[in-house]
Design brief:
about 160 residues; mainly alpha; elongated; Marvel; membrane
């Protein structure tokens, strides 16, 4: 009499809770908080030309950065196909430029003298700066991954 035992294993993404304590993880958390602050400030501010753009950028950046943070913490980013270092690098370039534009729009709105518009401009500039720093780190990580890929390629 022969018995057969079948075993199934499910490969789950490995969690990386240490990512939150790393520099990229801390930057993502700061970006998420700044996006929320910009959103709150622009909602409190009376309507002015361009406030819709600032609102849109704050919410879009909040959602996408939160998704990226979750992907990194859960370990899903390493299992997804595609050049994710490059994708994140391009995302951070685009969002930093968009926050620079949002800062300019909010700074122009400061002429109305409302404190919430002034706060929006200040936090948009801070967001632009933090996303810019993260862009630099993403560029370094992408460059490092490119060098590793090229040097370990087939001979």
């Amino acid at each position: 009499m022969s018995t057969t035992q079948t075993t199934t294993t499910t490969i789950m993404p490995s969690e990386d809770p240490g990512y939150i304590r790393s520099v990229p993880g801390i930057l993502k958390i700061v970006e998420i908080i700044l996006c929320l602050v910009v959103f709150i400030c622009v909602i409190i501010a009376p309507g002015y030309g361009g406030s819709g753009w600032v609102w849109f950028i704050a919410i879009s950046a909040f959602i996408t950065t939160l998704i990226l943070l979750i992907f990194h913490v859960v370990g899903l980013i390493s299992r997804l196909p595609g050049p994710w270092m490059l994708i994140e690098f391009i995302y951070y370039i685009v969002i930093a430029v968009f926050f620079l534009i949002a800062f300019i729009i909010a700074a122009v709105g400061c002429r109305y003298g409302y404190a919430s518009i002034i706060a929006t401009a200040i936090f948009c500039f801070a967001s632009c700066a933090v996303f810019g720093v993260d862009t630099y780190f993403q560029f370094q990580a992408w460059r490092t991954s490119q060098t590793t890929t090229i040097s370990t390629g087939p001979a």
